[in-house]
Amino acid sequence: MRAFFRVVVLVLAAAALPVALGASSVIGALGALNAPRTDGATASPAPLEHDPAKPTAVVVVGERGAVVSDTLAPFEILATTGAFNVYTVASEAHPVPLTGGLDLVPDLTFAGLEDLLGGSADLVVVPAMPDVGRPTTKPVTDWLEAQANGGALLLSVCNGAAVVASAGLLDGHEATAHWLRLDEWEHTYPAVDWVRGTRYVDDGDVVSTAGILSGIDGTLHIVERLAGADVAADAARAIEWPHYDSDGPARMEHARLAPSDAVVAFNTAFGWDRPRIGVQLTDGVGELELASVFDTYGQSLAVGTVAVGDGPVRSRHGLTFVPRADTGAGLDRLVVPGTTDHDVIPGMEPVYPHHQPGFAFDAVLRDLARTTDVATARWAAKTLEYPIDGLTLDGPTWPWAETFRPLALAVLGVLVALGVFALLRNRSRRRRRTGA
């Protein structure tokens, strides 16, 4: 019995330090993805241009924010066509966090959109939101219900489908979402017919897409429906998206967790020296260029990002972003999205990932592989649902330091337990000798 007790104590000692320190790191890494800004800074959105002859498309963001690529990729595609009035909307006018530390100033509040249109938008894009299913999304879900009742076409991107489902607007519909949470949504929203293995599902008044960059395919499909196949093809070429197919949604193998995906657990739990990248905001930057930096690094959970700059900026199609820092203090690297040179933070050597042609995410994935490891870059691509069969990734194969840290902690815990056993044993011997 005593031997069994010793074994149990040694097992618990081996697990205690990795679990305690790893859990704290995981909470910090996940919390940082959608952390709100705390300084109360704000800015005014760009003046609106509205053409009543064009249909109006809006991308809604929640009070707690949204996934950056789910928000910015559809926005840029729709704006690129020139066929729509395109705005971002939210319940309130203050900046909201997009994943990775990028704060967006919505173009309009819900009330402002009502004043502008006098009714519903023609298209509402719903990105994934960090608080889906919680009471904090009620302003969004109530507004979505009103928009749908007013005749708006809904496009959910990634786990934005769960936001739409939580409003009851997917009951009886086929829909899809990110592969990592489809089982959860099946349990939570059983009235929805969840579909696997496709990049988007068109079920009439609601179109839903699979994970993150599958939203590009779904948005291009919407453009086909509302503006024609030629316009959609032009938009795909403009953003250099190589997977556009006007014949319908591409079939894809339903992704599942694999042993190699353990890389994200090691990065999240034991990446204590996680690099912190400043992403410099500059006027005229493309929305997809911004998304590619914040989401690729962010989805890896191996790198932290924060928007830096000397004041609010306007993106290529008029979105307003507010940086969180104006210096390079505490940063390990500086990345400047976009295709043009700008003045950068003094004393830092900038990286310009988009100076070469190609889809915006390609160069950032290559940089992630080079500066962390290939396994981490492959995880990021898998989470983004971005096919990378033709993309060459060079770098270390695996995050070995992060992998050996829990083993070292486990050994340390066992050694401490053995030391305690030895002390107790020696004390017991001294007592017996004294008693003798």
UniProtKB/TrEMBL annotation:
One of its GO terms (molecular function) is peptidase activity. GO terms for biological process: proteolysis. The chain crosses the membrane at residues 407-424. The keyword Transmembrane helix applies. InterPro entries: Class_I_gatase-like, DJ-1/PfpI, INH-QAR. It comes from the Bacteria. Gene3D superfamilies: 3.40.50.880. Residues 59-224 form the DJ-1/PfpI domain. Keywords: Hydrolase, Membrane, Protease, Transmembrane, Transmembrane helix. The keyword Oxidoreductase does not apply. This is Intracellular protease/amidase.
